[in-house]
Amino acid sequence: SAAAPLPEEDCMKLNPSFVGIALSSLLAIDLWASKRLGVCAGEGSAWGSARPLMKVVEVSGHGIPWLLGTIYGLYQSDSLAAREVLLNLLFALLLDLVLVAVVKGLVKRRRPTHNKMDMFITISVDKYSFPSGHATRAALVCRFILHHLVLAVPLRVLIVLWALIVGISRVMLGRHNVTDVLCGLLLGYVLYSVVEYCWLSPLRTPALFALW
User: Fold this and answer.
1) Which of 22, 26, 46, 154 is at a distance of 20 to 30 A from 87, taking alpha carbons?
2) Would residue 62 show up in a list of annotated catalytic residues for this protein?
3) The model's pTM
4) For residue 112, what is the DSSP state?
5) Catalytic residue among 62, 114, 134, 148
């Protein structure tokens, strides 16, 4: 008698598409590279002695210090122009937190197996890895500062280096895979354009500025 046909999903496994093979290969490379680059993932890692320094970098890109610092600046500012910039920075940071949390909740990619869950102030979605919220925030804040603060060239270079170091530190600490960080940086870069498009000004949102 003729053999029963295989279920469709089994046929797909036996005859994977080119796209499926390419994605699987990229995923394997991503996991391999992330494992090799996680040189500060633990005290016993290759660069374990640099782990405390990397954790300081981690805190510098965390959302809580940026939110608290921005709110404090709003209360202390006595200039309408400064309040406008700081209010939009606060809007950008809140938008970043919401967007990253939603994407993490939808994708639900687990953090690398070599990661130690000793991060600074986490919430429920922080158990997921994609995208890197630190990388997203670093790219967003970097573009924001470069566009709205008048800085000397050395300081502008330092801001860009800080954003890159924050992203690199996520992989070195074993917090994220390489693609988590790359997509996070891209998301933060694009998110700034959204903030610019929705820019809050005294003319467009007078009620907000009346609060300050």
Assistant:
1) 154
2) no
3) 0.85
4) P
5) 134
Residue 184 has pLDDT above 80, yes or no: yes
Measured distance CA(33)–CA(168) in Å, rounded: 12
Active site residue 114: no
**Alpha helices (runs of H) in the chain, residue ranges in sequence order:** 8-14, 18-37, 51-60, 63-76, 80-107, 133-148, 153-172, 178-197, 206-210
Q: Report the Cα–Cα distance between both ends of the chain, in Å, rounded.
A: 82
Encode pLDDT of 145-165 as tens digits: 999 988 899 999 999 999 999
8, part of any domain: no
DSSP state of 6: P
Mean pLDDT over residues 163-188, rounded? 96
Burial 142-177 (b: 16+ CB within 10 A, else e): bbbbeeeeeeeeeeeeebbebbebbbbbbbbbbbbb
| Inside any domain, residue 188 | yes
Give me the number of domains the chain comprises: 1
* pLDDT at residue 9 is higher than 50: no
Residue 17 within any structural domain of the chain = no
Q: How many CB atoms lie within 10 A of CB 77?
A: 16
For the chain, give the mean pLDDT.
87
Q: What is the dihedral of CA 156, 158, 164, 169, to 10 degrees?
A: -160
Compute the radius of gyration of the chain from its Cα atoms. 21
Note down the domain range covering 170: 41-211
